[in-house]
Amino acid sequence: MRDALLLGAALLAALAGMGWLALAMDVHWQQVCGSAAPPPARVRLLRVLGVLGLATALALCLAVDHASMAALVWLMALAAAALAVALALSWRPHWLRWLPGAARSTGA
């Protein structure tokens, strides 16, 4: 049960990380927020949050399995998260507004 919760948390962290990295791009920011490109400080924050999200996913995978299996699970989680974010941006970009920093389209 604990392992399943940790892997679920890893998938959510990977999803958030991929979403933050996507929102750091002007085109995706405009799709989700409907406003002009984010300020440079917001872009840096989104990139840092994205990297932290992916690193957290790796740490959670490592907490569940040995390194070789954790790396495989992490890569699969990254692929699933990237696909989910890509599909959300294609069909329902407003679904990504739950990510912190995306809800507000002004300020840094």
Which key features would you list for this structure?
single chain; 108 residues; mainly alpha; 4 helices; 74% helix; elongated
Protein model, in words:
The chain has one domain. By secondary structure, it is an all-alpha fold. It is elongated. The protein has helices at 2-23, 26-33, 40-64, 67-91. Helix content is 74%, strand content 0%. Helix 1 packs antiparallel against helix 3, helix 1 (2-23) packs across helix 4 (67-91) and helix 3 (40-64) packs across helix 4 (67-91). It is built from four helices and no strands.
What characteristic shape results from the CA principal axes? elongated
Number of domains: 1
What is the C-alpha radius of gyration, as a whole number of Å?
Answer: 14 Å
Biggest sheet: strands, sense, closure?
A: none
- Strand runs, count: 0
What pattern of helices and strands is seen along the backbone? HHHH
